[in-house]
Amino acid sequence: MKTRFQVRRRALTALLAESKLDALLITSPANWYYLTGFTGEAGALLVSKKGATLVTDGRFMVQGREEASQVRILQQKHSLFESLGHFLKKSGHRKLGFDPAQLTVAQMRALRKSGGSKLRWIPASGVVESLRMRKDASELSQMRKAAALADEIMEFAIRLLKPGVQESKVAAEVEYQMRKRGASGPSFETIVASGERSALPHARPTTKRLGKNELVVLDLGVILGHYCSDMTRTVFVGRAPKRIRGWYEAVLEAQTAATAAAKQGAACGDVDAAARRVLTSHKLDRFFVHSTGHGLGLEVHEDPRVARGQKKPLEPGNVITIEPGVYVEGIGGIRIEDDVAIHAGGTEVLTRVPRDLIEI
Predict the structure, then answer these.
(1) Cα(229)–Cα(139) distance, integer angstroms
(2) For labelling alongside 293, which of 55, 87, 113, 127 has CA 20 to 30 A away?
(3) What residue spans define the domains of the chain?
(4) Beta carbons of 310 and 292 less than 8 angstroms apart
(5) Which CATH number fits the domain 137-359, given the four candidates 3.40.190.10, 3.40.50.300, 3.40.309.10, 3.90.230.10?
(6) What is the CATH number of domain 4-132?
(7) What is the share, in percent, of the chain residues with pLDDT greater than 90?
(8) pTM over 0.90
(9) What's the rounded mean pLDDT across residues 301-318?
């Protein structure tokens, strides 16, 4: 019985045949893990109908043999890309696909120099990523677990919030708890942004202390079994005034509308538009400064993009975030984010912490 990695490589070689490519060079760690199970930090993978070859250095040879079943493991003798070029020169391949977004000019120069003039390098962007967008049952099961742990951590984080506590101390305790409870780490640097800083969508935690009567945005996610979760909740320290409540209800309404629009066959841009229509009706659209969401999986930002004008239709197996927000300079920000899986028969919200305004 073939492993899930062999099944994925077979699907990839079918795509290469359609594109008339002899092989694909893969330099993204997330992509080589997806195709082989190799978790090392250095190397490059070549996949063709002849099989898969992983080139890496001496630090990862044993690890490669243990983790990557049915994959040839070669130790580089020179620099990585010089060694790759020498291998490719002897491989018999002529039309080689590569992702130009994942190779530097210097790396490509080294490949061309050592590989010789007979190799034809063909840009092939996002080939593996197109497979990764559609999660299989085992991936979805793991992402449910990652979401459940994010729920647990979010509830813990909310209990830490009180006037006088530093943003950075909350973030540090949150990330410690992630690892203590089984995560390999955070999906991204945990965001704890309070007061006027909550109007910065990707604010990093600082030594600022939480004050009374201000907003706090908590954005966190865990990596569990290689898969990411990503969620945001917004808290008010004190009793929220009417204006803040109105903004919060508008963001919640926008998120609800976008979640309802996120169905099989719906264009990603239409999901984004659903959130924007609601915020426009509340005259808050100019304060929504980012896209409505993004794909989620082995990396915290994957395809598909849930953004303005995106034509890509949602498919069963896609997992996306839905995270509209309102950010008012000088006052603060509000964001509500959940992870949503697309199924043939509907959608599944993976993150479960209540979305009502939290006042502490």
Answers:
(1) 12
(2) 127
(3) 4-132, 137-359
(4) no
(5) 3.90.230.10
(6) 3.40.350.10
(7) 95
(8) yes
(9) 98
